Sequence to fold (230 residues):
Amino acid sequence: AQSVTQPDIHITVSEGASLELRCNYSYGATPYLFWYVQSPGQGLQLLLKYFSGDTLVQGIKGFEAEFKRSQSSFNLRKPSVHWSDAAEYFCAVGRAAGNKLTFGGGTRVLVKP
Amino acid sequence: GAGVSQSPSNKVTEKGKDVELRCDPISGHTALYWYRQSLGQGLEFLIYFQGNSAPDKSGLPSDRFSAERTGGSVSTLTIQRTQQEDSAVYLCASSSGQGSSYNSPLHFGNGTRLTVT
Fold:
């Protein structure tokens, strides 16, 4: 069965500093990988996705993620965080058949001024 | 509509009562999903609709949970004889593609927060 682990439940980062959120997955075939963000009181918004090809993918809001098959990881990065990046971030893996996603437990990001 | 709409946004109910949660997907979206987000937990898949059919209902936690979709549009998630462990945020999502198309991302609603007292 597929699973997703986000080891960090909370991360606090200073505004302007870099951010990296970890995601490890377990899946028996080529994974379809996603990062979503959930701002307070909002629904989930897709940041970026990886299906195949270039292992470094660019998303919205200045985020990027790198797929590393050897490490079963899909870590999310941003070079310089803004106060508006304070939110909860979810990594997800999808199966080849259907859009059913398995989500990680989420990482809550707090941005200090 | 502009986005996925869910109602009510908040629902407080007594243990043992039935509740209905509604989801209005984006117009034209054929695929619809229900997820549950419990406090401190990730998102748990409940059920997937393609049109009015539910090819995958493997995530429904018990027979107290059911869902239907009519006219290929609105979906209702019903929880019978609610229990305190049903308290969670119930999220609906829709997408425009067929289930196997990953070029059609999920669009999520803001969810219904259910509290069972």
